[in-house]
Backbone:
C-alpha cells in the first residue's frame, strides 16, 4: 500500500497558452470557455488547417540571440520565469545546487528539427547550422532553464508523450520527498504545430476535421471527432510546506498525491476500460491519504477524441458512481498542447482549488451514451469548494499520470 506523504506546497505558477501569456490571461480565457482554434496559414494545404497557437512571436524577454532557441524553449523560459516570480523567489539569492528543474516535452524542439532537415535536403550538409542540435535535442529546454536561472541541482527531462508535463511534476515531487532538492521548478512545454507533426496526427485520424474553429475542439461531446493541436508551457514551483512557511509565502494549493502507470495495451489507443489510468488515479488518492469519496473535481485529460473521452468518462462513472465529481477539460478552449498539457492543466487545477471555481468545457453541447453520465461543467464556471481535485493525463505508449491537489490552509484565497 502506498503510504501518504506530507503534501508539497505549490507556491508559484507560470503559463503561456493560446488563451494568453501569463496566468491571469490563461485562467480568464478558460473561464470564459473561449475557443482559441483558428485557421493556421502555416498549415495551408494540409488535411487539417486549424491550430491553437500562442499569439504573437515566441520570445522570452531579455534572451540574447533568441533565434538560437526553439519556440518551445521560449515558452518554457517565459512560463518558468513567471512561476519563479510568483513564488516570491529571486534566483540571484538562492542556492542553485538545491534547486531542481524537471521539464516534460513530447517532442523537444521539433520545429527546429524540421527546419534543419529542410535545409539539409535543399542545400546539403553545409547548410545545417551548428546550433541545430542544441535547438532541438529534447533535454535542451531544461538545460536552458538551468542556464537562465542559475540552477545547478538535478536538471531532468521527462518524455511520456502527452503526459510529459504531469510526469515532470510527479518526478519533481519524488525528488523533494527524497531530499534531493529544496525547490523544484517543474512543468512542460511543446510547440508541435508543425507541418510534419500535423500531417502525422491527421494520418492517424487523431485531429478534428471540423472546419468551424468554434466547434472543432469539443471534449466529451457526442459529435467529437478529434483534437485541435495546440502549443504552450506551464510550470509550477514546488517546495516543502515548512520551507514555504519559513519564507512567509502562502501556497496556492498543496500537491497531496501523484502517481503513474502504464496501460501495456496499444501503442496509441487508450485501454477501453482505462484500467491503467484508474490504477494511477487510485494510487494518487491513496498517497494523498484520502478516499475516493473525497474527490470533488477531475480536470480530465479530455482530448476530444472518440476513444479517449469514452474511456475516461466510463472510468469516472465507474469509480465514483453515485457521488460524481465535477469534470472539466481545458482542451476545448486551449486545444491539445501535447507535452505541456499535463502541466498546464495541473496549474488550472491549482487555480480551481484556490479560487473554488471550476471552468466550463468549451465546445461541449450534448454527451453520448458514454459521456453523458459524468457531471461535466458546461455553460459557465461553477462555484465549488474542492476538498480534493485530480488532474489526469495520458499519452501515446500507454503512459498515465494523475496529480491530486488539496486546499492550502491560510493560502492565497
Residues:
Amino acid at each position: 500500500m502506498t503510504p501518504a506523504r506530507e503534501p508539497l506546497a505549490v507556491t508559484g505558477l507560470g503559463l503561456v497558452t493560446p488563451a494568453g501569456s501569463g496566468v491571469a490571461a490563461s485562467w480568464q480565457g478558460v473561464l470564459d470557455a473561449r475557443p482559441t482554434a483558428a485557421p493556421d496559414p502555416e498549415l495551408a494545404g494540409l488535411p487539417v488547417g486549424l491550430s491553437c497557437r500562442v499569439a504573437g512571436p515566441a520570445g522570452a524577454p531579455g534572451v540574447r540571440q533568441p533565434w538560437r532557441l526553439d519556440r518551445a524553449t521560449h515558452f518554457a523560459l517565459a512560463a518558468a520565469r513567471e512561476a519563479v516570480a510568483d513564488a516570491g523567489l529571486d534566483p540571484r539569492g538562492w542556492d542553485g545546487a538545491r534547486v531542481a528543474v524537471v521539464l516534460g516535452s513530447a517532442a523537444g524542439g521539433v520545429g527546429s528539427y524540421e527546419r534543419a532537415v529542410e535545409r539539409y535536403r535543399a542545400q546539403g550538409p553545409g547548410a545545417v547550422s551548428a546550433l541545430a542540435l542544441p535547438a532541438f535535442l529534447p533535454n535542451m529546454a531544461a538545460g536552458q532553464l538551468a542556464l537562465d536561472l542559475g540552477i545547478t541541482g538535478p536538471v531532468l527531462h521527462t518524455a511520456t508523450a502527452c503526459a510529459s508535463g504531469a510526469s515532470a511534476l510527479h518526478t519533481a515531487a519524488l525528488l523533494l520527498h527524497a531530499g534531493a532538492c529544496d525547490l523544484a521548478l517543474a512543468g512542460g512545454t511543446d510547440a508541435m504545430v508543425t507541418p510534419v507533426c500535423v500531417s502525422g496526427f491527421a494520418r492517424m485520424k487523431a485531429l478534428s476535421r471540423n472546419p468551424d474553429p468554434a466547434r472543432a475542439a469539443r471534449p466529451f461531446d457526442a459529435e467529437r471527432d478529434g483534437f485541435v493541436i495546440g502549443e504552450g508551457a506551464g510550470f509550477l514551483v514546488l517546495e516543502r510546506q515548512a520551507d514555504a512557511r519559513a519564507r512567509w509565502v502562502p501556497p496556492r494549493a498543496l500537491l497531496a498525491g501523484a502517481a503513474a502507470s502504464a496501460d501495456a495495451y496499444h501503442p496509441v489507443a487508450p485501454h477501453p476500460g482505462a484500467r491503467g489510468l484508474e490504477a494511477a488515479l487510485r494510487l494518487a488518492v491513496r498517497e494523498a491519504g484520502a478516499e475516493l469519496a473525497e474527490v470533488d473535481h477531475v480536470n480530465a485529460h479530455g482530448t476530444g477524441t472518440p476513444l479517449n473521452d469514452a474511456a475516461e468518462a466510463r472510468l469516472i462513472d465507474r469509480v465514483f458512481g453515485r457521488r460524481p465529481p465535477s469534470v472539466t477539460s481545458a482542451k476545448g478552449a486551449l486545444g491539445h498542447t501535447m507535452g505541456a498539457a499535463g502541466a498546464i492543466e495541473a496549474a488550472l487545477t491549482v487555480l480551481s482549488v484556490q479560487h473554488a471555481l471550476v471552468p466550463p468545457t468549451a465546445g461541449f453541447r450534448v454527451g453520448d451514451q458514454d459521456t453523458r453520465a459524468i457531471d461535466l461543467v458546461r455553460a459557465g464556471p461553477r462555484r465549488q469548494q474542492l476538498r480534493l481535485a485530480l488532474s489526469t493525463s495520458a499519452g501515446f505508449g500507454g503512459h498515465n499520470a494523475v496529480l491530486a491537489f488539496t486546499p492550502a490552509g491560510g493560502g492565497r484565497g
Summary: The two ends are 34 Å apart (CA to CA). The chain has one domain: 8-406. The domain at 8-406 is CATH 3.40.47.10 (Peroxisomal Thiolase; Chain A, domain 1). The first strand starts at residue 8 and ends at 17.
